[in-house]
Structures are given as structure tokens and as C-alpha cells.
Amino acid sequence: MTDLLTLNPLTPLRETVRRPLYTETTSSQALFLPIAPPTLGTAGAVIGRELYSGKAFIYCPFCAFGDGLPGGNMIVLGDTGRGKSALVKTYTARQIRLGRKVVVLDTKEQKEREEGEWAALCRSLTGRAPVKFSPGGDHTRGAACINPMDPAIAGKRQIELVRTIVELGLGKALDEFAGSALRIAIRQAHQRASADGRTPVLADVAAALRSPDPADAAAKKRTREELLGDGLEASYVLDRLCGTDQDATGDLIGMLDGPTSLSVDLDADMIVFDLTKVPSGGVAMTILVAVISIFLEEVWLRPACECGTGPSDHERRVVDAKSGAWELGANPASKCLRYTQRKRILVCEEAWHILGTPQLAALLEKFLKFARGYGLSCIFIVHHLSDIDDSPETQAALKMADTVVVYSMKKSEAEDTVKRLGLPAWTAEHIMRLRRGVALWKVGEVIYPGVQHLLTEAETHLCFSSGSMSDLTPSTPDHE
């Protein structure tokens, strides 16, 4: 085991994810055997070991899918400093070794490094810096902008996205008149920007709302003044969010108010969206996450085979001549024998930003509900369920988490977690006593009471996120 765990997991020539682990604790295994839960197999990413049996704990929702695990969504909970982020970082790094692609919404800043927690791991794996958003948009320092009106987002989804932005900024849902005026303005913004030979932005939608076309009003059996009144409030919201030529204090200035400047390689193994400079809990964070979610759905989640080609590049193979049923087969150009959907993982740090906002929870519900069709596993990291509300949208999201990982919590939080997730009553006291780095795992309906997460030396350096609270020892090289 020692030799295996000292291997560098980031070196492609060294395998750490498919090899079995062996243990000498036969006495422990014999005692635990009558009640031990079944293993999850030998295919997947090595997490660590089960403390009560000494067996290796290997987990992969894509490998275990269909065998007691109906989906790949996961929620990770626990007090600060218990090992949640370290687990997810090493898990995603090891999954990348299996050919997965990962996107991270990083909202946790390391003050001493002035960057997000995932930045070091992202650079180590891809050689690229995270995609960083900053209010005010200092693009000279690498700040990114994403355009909700980008043509990469399909027409219907674009209308839904802009409406969501307005409703989040307004704090309430638009009525039918305002919704109709907004749809018309989006169409007009595209037409006017196209005539100028450029891509429309949100400011074009605001301008179109304030200058409706009489022909559009007539088509809706409204006067021009009535159509103007229908969309005037929405235009004020967009002005407040994106600013104007006279006012540069909008919440989204530099992030959503211009053409897309994302220098992001969608084929990269890992993409990190650094949201650490965006005020948490505010409207800017909520809207930015909504826009990124739609952008990922329309661009990043497009079907692709593990060989890197699309479905249209593969041959159709009839499997039932009577019914005409077919499947995607080989791609002679890439020498791929069969179309296999590229698996993806979406990680949300400090996920209370999402699960605690009904509009965002509803927006991401499609990710969760159709994750199997996307070949997607969503991972939400939160401290406690008390951080998020008990809305129907949130409860629906929690119910679609087929894997639950719980680290140590205080008594009240442990009892609340057990109640809200429907865990057995005995797990509340058990969760309170878990040591750092040890978690209770619930995979499908099977509970693994003590799984110890193990890191290699290389992973320890990349996953350490408590530098501000740690003292340097005399043996530390920095003291030499």
C-alpha cells in the first residue's frame, strides 16, 4: 500500500486508480465480515480505505451506475477543516486519469495566495490559469467576461437566461406583458447588432426595451406606449446590473456586459471558474452562476465520444432490423470501435450559493435530473444543510444526490443532517465522533460508516487550504 500511495497521481505514466489495494488486517476483516457492506468493485478512483475492514474503498459513479447506484450526483457535507475540499480535489484529479473532464465553480479564496483554492490544481493538471471573474472587469489582469447574448447559446435558452437575469435582479417574476416585451427586445437586439456587424450584448436589450418598434406593438395589439411601459422596468434592471455610458457602477460590469472574452479551452481536462472576487450571497454571484450554468449546458455538455469526436462522426449500426433500432458504432477516422459518451464532473464549492437560491436550484435541476443523459456527475460541497433553505427546489436537488458524504459535525448539525437526508438515527452520534479525514459514505442505499481519505505527498501540497491557520515548524524549508 505504501508504494502505491507514494506514486504521483498527476504523472500519466503511473497508474493509481485501477490497481487493487491489499491489507493484512485479517482479524479485523473476520470480525467485520458478517455486517460489512458490499464493495463497489475495483474499477474507479481510489478514495482510501474502510476503517472497519481495512479494505480499499474505490468509487466511481460511472463504473457503479446501475448496480444499486441510480445516478452520479453527490453532496459532501461537514464542519470546516474536516477534509471536504481535499477529498473532492483528489477525487477529481484521479477521475481525470480515467479520461473524465471536470468543471469547477470555485468560490473559496485563499487570502495569502490571492486566488481560489482550485487554482494550483488547475495549473498542475492543465498548465492553464483559472477563468477569473472580477467586478469592474480589469481585463488587463486576466479578468473574464461572458456574454449571455452569445450566439453559442441557443435562441430559446438565451431568452430563458436573459429573463432569469432580469427576474433575479428584480427580485420577482415578470408578468406576461413584461415577458413578451423582453422577448421582442431580445429579437430586436439581435437584428440591430447584426446590422452593425457585431454580437449583441445586454445593453442592446435594454436599449430595445426603451425604443420598441411600432410594428411589434401592432402585432401584439398594443400601442407603442403600452409596449414601452411593459418593458420599461426590465430595462431599468438591466441598466442597474450592467451600467450605462453615464453610470459605471453596475453589479455585473466587466463580467456580463460585453462580448465573451473567455480564454477557456473547452477541451481541457479541467476548467476552473474563479468566482472568489464576486461578493458572495449577492445578486451578482447568483446571476453569474446562472449564466455560467447555461453556457456549460449549451457548449461544454455537447455530446462527444471518449475518442474526441462527435456522434455524427460515428457509424450507425442497426441492432434490430425489425424495429429499426440502431446505436452509434465505430469511427474509422479515429479508429474508435464504438461511441462512448465522454463523462464529465461539475463541482460546486460553497454550494449554498446555488442550493440556497430557489431560482438557481431550479435552473440546475435540469443538470441533476438529466445527468445520466449528459454523462454528468454533479458534486455539491456545503458545510451544513442549515446553510440552505427548505424550499421545494432545494429539496428536489438534495433528493437527486445518490451519493452522500458526511464528515464530522456538531450535535445539532448532525441531527439536522440525518433528519433531512433520511439517514438512520444511529448515524447522528456516529457523525459527531468522526476524526478529521474520515467520513460516512452513503452510496445508493448502502452505508459505509468509516471511510478514510488517503492522499499522496503531491496531492497534499496541491490540496492544502489552511495555510493562514497553520504554523511553520522549524524543519520547514522556508525557515532554512
UniProtKB/TrEMBL annotation:
The name this protein goes by in its record: Putative ATP/GTP-binding protein
Native organism taxonomy: Bacteria, Bacillati, Actinomycetota, Actinomycetes, Kitasatosporales
Organism whose genome encodes this protein: Streptomyces alboflavus
Keywords: Plasmid
Superkingdom in the source lineage: Bacteria
InterPro entries, per database record: P-loop_NTPase
